[in-house]
Amino acid sequence: MKKLLNIGFSVFVLGVLLVSCDDDNYQTIESIGKIKIDSVKIVNDTMDVFGIQSIKTYSTYPSHCEGFYGYDYVYNTNLERTVTSYKYITNGPCTQGNYVGANQINFSPQRKGNYTFKFWNGGNNWITKTIVVE
Predict the structure, then answer these.
(1) Model confidence over 6-62: pLDDT tens digits?
(2) What is the pLDDT of residue 16?
(3) What is the CATH number of the domain that holds 84?
């Protein structure tokens, strides 16, 4: 009986692995590049030290073969940050047409002060936001 259970379990695991590896929608990432941040939403422009706040960014992607890859979040000084958003581009069949993607950064300040955020908006343009931490 124990041998039969081991064989049954092995067949089950093998079946799960085969099904999970069969992904017809798999697309390879071809490249990574900057994408401008169109707008930024900060719920509270004042917050407590050690608190946590989500900062949402919105970018427009020209097709569904592109999507959010990550942020480059740079501490310029103790109280200044620059944020650049990056997108991925895949090689699969795409639905054309713009769509807006929303992403977020969780900000948790460790000291009091006026924090300045600069979000890359294309070229030499930046969206500047300030959060006062008390």
Answers:
(1) 444 444 444 444 444 445 566 788 899 999 999 999 999 999 999 999 999 999 999
(2) 43
(3) 2.60.40
Containing structural domain, residue 61: 28-133
The pair of three-digit structure tokens given for residue 35, joined into one six-digit string: 């994408």
Token digits of residue 21: 């590896």
State how far the Cα of 62 lies from the Cα of 100, in Å rounded to an integer.
Answer: 9
Rounded to an integer, what distance in angstroms lies between the CA atom of residue 65 and that of residue 101? 13
> Which burial class, exposed, middle or buried, applies to 87 when counting CB atoms under 10 A from its CB (0-12, 13-18, 19+)?
buried
CA atoms within 13 A on the CB side of 16: 6
Euclidean distance between CA atoms 14 and 100, whole angstroms: 40
